[in-house]
C-alpha cells in the first residue's frame, strides 16, 4: 500500500531512502531553512559523497536494504511544536528530495514529538497530512511512517474516546449475551435431565456390598441350534425393494445442456459502484483507497479475489453504507461481524460516516489491527 504505519526502529526500515533526524536543542523558531532549488542535486551528487542542503544532508547508505539517508534537523523539547510550519517543512523538504531523485520508497520517523498529549496528536496529524498531500501527486511512491514508541502515538482525542466507548459497549454487550445463552442452556439441561440417586427408586446398598453374579455358559436346545444354523430358503426371503427413479441432476446433463447462472462477482460490483459514484479517473479511486496502481489493475480481472483489508478499503473509498459494505464484502466471501475488533472499528467509522482512510488506519494501528489498503 502507498502509505503504511509500522512500529519499530527507523534504522531497520526497508526502503530506498530513510529520513534520520538529528536534534536541534535551540528550538524550532531558531532553525533556518533554505529552498531546495538553490542546489542542483544531480550535479552535486555526481561529485560528492554528501550533498549539504542548508541543514539537510543526503548521504549514500551502506546497508543493503537502503540506498540513501536524508538527515534533517528536528526541533525538540517544550517548543518543538511551537512552530508547526517548521515540522511540516521537515516532511516537505525530505519528500522533495525523494521526488527530485526519482526514488520509489521512503521511511519517515514521527518528527516533532514532545511531551504532552497535544504535541503527540499534532505531530501525527502533520505527518499524515503532508504524506497524503505528496501521494496525491506522486502515486508511485511508497511511504512508511515508523513509530519507535507507541507511547508517542496518539490519534485524535475525540475520535479515540468515542471509538473506545463504542468498542467497549459492543464487546461487553456481546460477552453478556453469550453468558445469558450459556446460562439458559445450563438451566434447560438441568430441568430436562435432573440428577438421579438410588433413593429415588428406594434402593439400598447391602451391608456386605454387592456380590458378583455367577456366570455360566448358556444352554441351547436342539430347536435353538437348528434355528441359528439353518439358512432360510429363497422362498422365505423377503423380496428386494424396488428402486425409486432418481432425479436428474444438472451435472448429469451434457455440456451443451448445462446452464450455470453465477451471481455478480466482486470485480463486477466494484466497477459498477465506481461508475455510479462518478469517479472521473481510476487514480482518483485507488489513491482514496490507499491501494497501488498494480493492485487496481488486478481488480479488473473477473477472477480477482481480494484480501479483506483491500476489499474494506475499496468500500471506504466508495463511501458505502454498512449494508453496502457487507454486500460488497460478501462478493469476496467476507463480512463484518462483531466478534472481531477489526470489524468493530471499521463499523464505527462507517456508521459515523468518516471515510478518511488515513484516520481509520491510525485507529487500526493504535489497536494493533491490520491496515486498510493493498
Please, could you describe this protein's structure?
By secondary structure, this protein is α/β, with parallel strands linked by helices. Among the domains are: 149 residues, Leucine Aminopeptidase, subunit E, domain 1, CATH 3.40.220; 101 residues, no CATH class. Helix content is 42%, strand content 11%. It has 12 helices and 7 strands. The protein has a 7-stranded mixed β-sheet. Strand 4 and strand 5 form a beta hairpin. Helix 4 packs across helix 11 and helix 9 packs antiparallel against helix 10. It is elongated, with a radius of gyration of 35 Å.
* Sheet with most strands: 7 strands, mixed
Distance N to C terminus: 5 Å
What spatial form do the alpha-carbon principal axes imply? Answer: elongated
- Helical residue percent? 40-55%
CATH fold-level label of one domain: Leucine Aminopeptidase, subunit E, domain 1
Task: Flag low-confidence runs.
Answer: 24-54
**Structural class by sheet pairing and helices:** alpha/beta
Task: Please report the first level of CATH classification, the CATH class of one domain.
Answer: Alpha Beta
Report the order of strands and helices.
Answer: EEHEEEHEHEHHHHHHHHH
What's the quick description here?
This protein is of the alpha/beta class and 374 residues long. 42% of the residues lie in helices and 11% in strands.
Amino acid at each position: 500500500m502507498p502509505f503504511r504505519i509500522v512500529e519499530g526502529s527507523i534504522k531497520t526500515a526497508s526502503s530506498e531512502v530513510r529520513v534520520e533526524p538529528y536534534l536541534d536543542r535551540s528550538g524550532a523558531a531558531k532553525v533556518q531553512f533554505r529552498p531546495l532549488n538553490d542546489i542542483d542535486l544531480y550535479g552535486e551528487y555526481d561529485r560528492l559523497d554528501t550533498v549539504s542542503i542548508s541543514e539537510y544532508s543526503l548521504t549514500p547508505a551502506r546497508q543493503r536494504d537502503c540506498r540513501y539517508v536524508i538527515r534533517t534537523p528536528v526541533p525538540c523539547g517544550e517548543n518543538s511544536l511551537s512552530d508547526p510550519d517548521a515540522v511540516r517543512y521537515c516532511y516537505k523538504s525530505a519528500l522533495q528530495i525523494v521526488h527530485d531523485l526519482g526514488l520509489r520508497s521512503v521511511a519517515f520517523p514521527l518528527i516533532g514529538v514532545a511531551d504532552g498529549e497535544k504535541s503527540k496528536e499534532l505531530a501525527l496529524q502533520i505527518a499524515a497530512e503532508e504524506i497524503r498531500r505528496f501521494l496525491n501527486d506522486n502515486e508511485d511512491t511508497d511511504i512508511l511512517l515508523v513509530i519507535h514508541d507507541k507511547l508517542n502515538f496518539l490519534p485524535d482525542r475525540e475520535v479515540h474516546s468515542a471509538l473506545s466507548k463504542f468498542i467497549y459497549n459492543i464487546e461487553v454487550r456481546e460477552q453478556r449475551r453469550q453468558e445469558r445463552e450459556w446460562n439458559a442452556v445450563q438451566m434447560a439441561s438441568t430441568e430436562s435431565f435432573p440428577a438421579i440417586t438410588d433413593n429415588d427408586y428406594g434402593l439400598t446398598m447391602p451391608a456386605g456390598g454387592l456380590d458378583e453374579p455367577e456366570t455360566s455358559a448358556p444352554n441351547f436346545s436342539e430347536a435353538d441350534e437348528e434355528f441359528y444354523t439353518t439358512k432360510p430358503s429363497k422362498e422365505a426371503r423377503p423380496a428386494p425393494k424396488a428402486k425409486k427413479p432418481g432425479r436428474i441432476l444438472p451435472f448429469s446433463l451434457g455440456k451443451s445442456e448445462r446452464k450455470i447462472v453465477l451471481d455478480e462477482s466482486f470485480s463486477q460490483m466494484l466497477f459498477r459502484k465506481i461508475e455510479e459514484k462518478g469517479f472521473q479517473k481510476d487514480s482518483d479511486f485507488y489513491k482514496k483507497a490507499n491501494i497501488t496502481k498494480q493492485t487496481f489493475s488486478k481488480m479488473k480481472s473477473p477472477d480477482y479475489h481480494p484480501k479483506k483489508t483491500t476489499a474494506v478499503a475499496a468500500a471506504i473509498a466508495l463511501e458505502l453504507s454498512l449494508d453496502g459494505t457487507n454486500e460488497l464484502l460478501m462478493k469476496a466471501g467476507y463480512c463484518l461481524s462483531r466478534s472481531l475488533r477489526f470489524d468493530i472499528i471499521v463499523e464505527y467509522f462507517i456508521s459515523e460516516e468518516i471515510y478518511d482512510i488515513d484516520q481509520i488506519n491510525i485507529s487500526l494501528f493504535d489497536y494493533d489491527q491490520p491496515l486498510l489498503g493493498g
